[in-house]
């Protein structure tokens, strides 16, 4: 990568499309800044998001409490009350639910802020900002990131504003490395390929949804074209991005690829990753078979994040009447250039009117 700071700043723009709730007012302060490392980018997004949430109020959930009280509250714990009586304490042991801020959502956010606060690469500016918001979490515990069950978090309409914050935390935790001290972590200096692939894929889907409402944009499942109707044990085919015009007769299937190397082979023998090409061929042919025959167009595109390799794929192949192309997207350009590259793809496949 040629300029790490440009890519780091583009990660914010990519996340703003991948996580639409990052776009509200206040986050433009983040997009206008320059970041030299990923720690400061995470800290800036987290600080801005937490400040917005504090203005709304931290989410309070019900937590089970068990205390000896002078009056009855909730359910009486008979055994606990008998122990109090035997100890000559004029108390009633009670079990009750109480609204409090010490719930898993706030615990995740406090843990993420704490980890960033103690990273050596986090700048003093963001350390101070993180310290300013920590008092709002005085009554909130931290949590072991490895114990978080992301798929079962209690998210609903009363706390939906936490979604973007939790998305940032999840990406941050995915880049943690355990240290030699038990219970402490070190954040990697940059996001790994797996995390970047996730952001890249969701960014492409989010960008086309927002910037090209004239198209039907989805991550649709593609049915297998089988002659005997039997699909048992066949793997699911789900596209990363599928673009369709309003009439439904023109389709472009995009598969997002983020690799350290875009091509296979050594020396002068460079080839496209065979598994990727076979997969796209299957997508295109099965999608085409599911459409009405006649005047229909189905195309496929493998869209790689551009690397520093000398050989970069830029070809289109007409395979049994359907076009499959292999392109790269340069994430080391200023974001308007990235947007122009994506818009050009739409113009090429759907005409100037769609761009």
Protein traits:
355 residues; McrC_bac; Trna Endonuclease, Chain: A, domain 1; 10 helices; six-stranded mixed beta sheet; elongated; 38% helix; alpha+beta; 3 domains
Outline of this structure?
The protein has 355 residues and is α+β, with helices and mostly antiparallel strands.
Which helices and strands appear, and what pairs or packs with what?
Layout: H1 4-18, H2 28-31, H3 38-56, E1 61-69, E2 75-76, H4 78-86, E3 92-100, H5 104-117, H6 124-133, H7 163-174, E4 176-178, E5 185-187, H8 193-211, E6 216-218, E7 241-244, E8 250-257, E9 263-264, E10 271-272, H9 274-289, E11 297-305, E12 315-319, E13 322-329, H10 335-350
Parallel strand pairs: 8-11, 11-13
Antiparallel strand pairs: 1-3, 2-3, 4-5, 6-7, 7-8, 9-10, 12-13
* CATH architecture assignment of the largest domain: 3-Layer(aba) Sandwich
What is the helix tally?
Answer: 10
Stretches where pLDDT is under 50 for at least 5 consecutive residues are: none
Could you name the CATH topology of the largest domain? Answer: Trna Endonuclease, Chain: A, domain 1
Helix content: 25-40%
How many domain modules? 3
Structural class: alpha+beta
Global shape: elongated
């Amino acid at each position: 990568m040629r300029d790490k700071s440009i890519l780091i700043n583009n990660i914010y723009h990519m996340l703003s499309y991948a996580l639409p709730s990052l776009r509200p007012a206040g986050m433009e302060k983040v997009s206008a800044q320059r970041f030299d490392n990923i720690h400061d980018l995470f800290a800036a997004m987290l600080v801005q998001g937490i400040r917005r949430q504090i203005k709304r109020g931290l989410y309070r959930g019900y937590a089970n409490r068990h205390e000896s009280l002078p009056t009855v509250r909730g359910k009486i714990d008979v055994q606990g009350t008998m122990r109090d009586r035997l100890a000559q304490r004029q108390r009633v042991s009670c079990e009750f639910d109480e609204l409090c801020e010490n719930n898993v959502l706030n615990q995740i956010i406090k843990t993420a802020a704490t980890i960033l606060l103690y990273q050596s690469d986090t700048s003093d500016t963001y350390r101070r900002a993180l310290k300013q918001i920590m008092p709002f979490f005085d009554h909130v515990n931290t949590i072991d990131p490895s114990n978080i069950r992301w798929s079962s978090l209690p998210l609903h309409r009363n706390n939906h504003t936490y979604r973007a914050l939790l998305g940032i935390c999840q990406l941050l935790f995915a880049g943690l490395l355990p240290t030699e001290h038990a219970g402490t972590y070190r954040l990697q200096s940059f996001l790994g390929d797996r995390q970047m692939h996730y952001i890249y894929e969701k960014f492409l889907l989010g960008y086309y949804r927002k910037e090209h409402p004239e198209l039907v944009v989805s991550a649709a499942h593609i049915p297998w074209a089988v002659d005997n109707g039997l699909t048992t044990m066949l793997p699911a085919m789900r596209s990363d991005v599928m673009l369709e015009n309003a009439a439904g007769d023109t389709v472009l299937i995009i598969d997002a690829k983020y690799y350290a190397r875009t091509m296979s082979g050594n020396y002068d023998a460079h080839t496209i990753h065979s598994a990727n090409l076979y997969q796209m061929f299957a997508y295109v042919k099965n999608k085409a078979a599911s459409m009405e025959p006649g005047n229909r167009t189905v195309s496929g595109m493998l869209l790689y994040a551009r690397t520093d390799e000398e050989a970069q794929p830029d070809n289109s192949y007409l395979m049994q009447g359907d076009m499959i192309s292999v392109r790269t997207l340069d994430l080391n350009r200023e974001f308007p250039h990235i947007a122009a590259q994506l818009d050009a793809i739409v113009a090429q496949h759907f005409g100037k009117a769609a761009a």
